[in-house]
Amino acid sequence: xxxxxxxxxxxxxxxxxxxxxxxxxxxxxxxxxxxxxxxxxxxxxxxxxxxxxxxxxxxxxxxxxxxxxxxxxxxxxxxxxxxxxxxxxxxxxxxxxxxxxxxxxxxxxxxxxxxxxxxxxxxxxxxxxxxxxxxxxxxxxxxxxxxxxxxxxxxxxxxxxxxxxxxxxxxxxxxxxxxxxxxxxxxxxxxxxxxxxxxxxxxxxxxxxxxxxxxxxxxxxxxxxxxxxxxxxxxxxxxxxxxxxxxxxxxxxx
Length: 254
What we know:
Elements: H1 3-37, H2 40-58, H3 61-68, H4 77-83, E1 88-91, E2 97-103, E3 106-113, E4 116-124, E5 154-159, E6 164-170, E7 180-186, H5 194-209, H6 214-223, E8 228-232, H7 236-239, H8 246-252
Antiparallel strand pairs: 1-2, 2-3, 3-4, 4-8, 5-6, 6-7, 7-8
């Protein structure tokens, strides 16, 4: 019974030692850069960049700080300032520009209208759990099925070879008086189960045919967890084209 404990302790010690070595190398590099630059201001700038880089390697803080700087109704210039140049651009059928940005921990799509952010969606990557506390579903938005929130105002669904997704809107959230909270599911980085496919197809068909969608939506919402979220002052129809599809994901992250 003691062997697993010893093994765990050994692994923890090695992990701590490795982390210390990495930090030691970073600090040594910082010192060399500071000496080489000579100028105090340049040295401080270099140290700040090294600090930010080290944070991004060991924590989610820089990624979350970027997301905290983006909000609906802000100038579209904020996107480039915080996230760099967009990696993918397209225009919606309504004429808005849709810009895609990539961070090591997420992809963000933003709908830009009249030089302002009209809506944006965040697609977390590789287990990143962003702060969703201001959304309608709160901080556990990405960890529970859709049906944990009963107060939705609208939803959209698509099921086809080209694109499959489910998207819903809620009037709740920290800033519900300014914009809506949205969450959704896209197969951009995940393969739906057969049961989930059947539920998506059934709801999509009912929407096209005008059949009763309530029981089908309830079934689907109990089976799916959101894998993206966002905020919008546009209706869902305008937001559908900003959903990251599998083909776009494969293009952006080959």
